[in-house]
Amino acid sequence: MVTTFYMPTRIVAGAGSLATVGDLARQLGMTKALVVSDPVISAQPFHADALAALAEAGIAVARFDGCGIDARCSHIDEQGERVRREGVDGVVCIGGGSVMCTGKGVAIVATNNKPMRDCTGVGRFDIKALPMIMVPTTAGSGSEVSQWTIVKDEERHLKLLGGGPLSFPDAAILDPATLGSLPMHVAVPPAVDALTHGVEAYLSGIASPLTDAVALAAVRLQFRSMRASINSKDGRAREENLVASCMANVACGNARLGHAHALSLPLEGHLDLPHPVGVGVLLPDVTAFNLSVLPDKVRPLAEALEVDAAGLSRAETIAACAAALRQLYADIGFADRFTPDQLPRQRVREMAERAVPGLYAGFSEAVAGGPAAAGDRTVIASPAARTMTVAQAERIFDNCLA
Ligand SMILES: [Fe+2]
Q1: Closest-CA residue to 44 (of 151, 171, 135, 143)
Q2: How far is the CA of 310 from the centre of ligand 1 (A)?
Q3: CA of 345: how far to CAs of 260, 285, 338, in Å?
Q4: How many A from CA of 141 to the centre of ligand 1?
Q5: Ligand 1 mean position, distance from CA 12 (Å)
Q6: Which CATH architecture has domain 10-179?
């Protein structure tokens, strides 16, 4: 099997690193930056510090503070048009996953001069996105080092992924000062999402020794630091979590994401479930499903999840890995089952069928795929190690109901 490991984003990390944003923007050739954020983050002192650093470096600024829970195609298309109109030549994102996905989308559509919907799928645009600097404010999505943007097409109720080698952020600034004010209910979901990135990269059918090394180290660091990072707001643990979430995305950017993300996609698009809830609840079952065909990976993952596997059979160790994830969820206050409101039982089969096109389909495949084309044995498109059918996905959904 031929594998590639590509990660061109410069990572600047540590306390005080946010002060470098102006110099980085100048080095990237920016003269006028669109600073993308949301209403909460744009009111934080560190956001003002970043604007001051840009001004000090002589970078003019246009602002978009209107991001919400999801990156929306409508926002991206509007801002892309604005960027072209106002002569903006770079994007600086300060926020969580939806902010970074919005800014990345703007950077893509601005240079490619077509709507975001037409840029979804793998490598569906030809021109390099505008220079981008990402400042994550949650230890979570890892979008700061990812070529992918995940966007919501509100008209069609679809969550879509777009990206390719031309849409990697140019720089990521990991400054723990951005995490200081995060309340627990904000910190937990992205941390769980980050954990799914590391685990899914490790369970991928296109994993390599390089991605395995990064993925396993990310999972180990996340698992070790997440409780203290969230429950006691320990500064050191938060910094570790921020780095670990970035590492997890370096791994999944190359090994890609598996069934938790593929199955979550229709829940996010059609049932408005937040991304971390979808992938997080699915992760324990998806982990057990894929580990069953990866015998050499059972012990290393168990060790990273702090499972004492002494005396356990392989099947028992796999079950203990799923249990360790659920115990972590209990300890950090993340529900490990879908409520009937989140996923009504009568919609389980429909969701399993809608998952068929997978995470890496573009708009046209996502619209063409789904229930009409799917039967029990139809395979869910995914790079995960084990093939999953619609019937198996249905069983996993059922098992994840409260
Ligand atoms: Fe994710």
Answers
A1: 135
A2: 32
A3: 18, 17, 10
A4: 6
A5: 22
A6: 3-Layer(aba) Sandwich (3.40)
**195 C-alpha vs ligand 1 centroid, how far in Å?**
9
Please report, in tens digits, the pLDDT of each residue of the chain (402 residues total). Answer: 888 899 999 999 999 999 999 999 999 999 999 999 999 999 999 999 999 999 999 999 999 999 998 999 999 999 999 999 999 999 999 999 999 999 999 999 999 999 999 999 999 999 999 999 999 999 988 999 999 999 999 888 888 899 999 999 999 999 999 987 777 788 899 999 999 999 999 999 999 999 999 999 999 999 999 999 998 878 889 899 999 999 999 999 999 999 999 999 999 999 999 999 999 999 999 999 999 999 999 999 999 999 999 999 999 999 999 999 999 999 999 999 999 999 999 999 999 999 999 999 887 777 776 666 789 999 999 999 999 999 999 999 999 999
* CATH 1.20.1090.10 domain position(s) in the chain: 184-254+274-332
Tell me how far the alpha carbon of residue 196 lies from the centroid of ligand 1, in angstroms. 7
Superfamily of domain 184-254+274-332: Dehydroquinate synthase-like - alpha domain (1.20.1090.10)
What is the model's pTM?
Answer: 0.93
The residue among 208, 219, 207, 209 whose CA lies nearest residue 247 is 219
Domain with CATH 3.40.50.1970 in the chain: 10-179
87 Cα–ligand 1 center, Å: 32
Please state, as a whole number, how many other Cβ atoms lie within 10 Å of the Cβ of residue 74.
14
CA 152 – ligand 1 centroid, Å: 14
DSSP 8-class letter at 284: H
Q: Is the dihedral of CA 146, 147, 148, 149 positive or negative?
A: positive
270 C-alpha to ligand 1 centroid (Å): 17
Please give all residues whose CB falls under 5 A of ion ligand 1, grouped by chain where several chains appear: 193
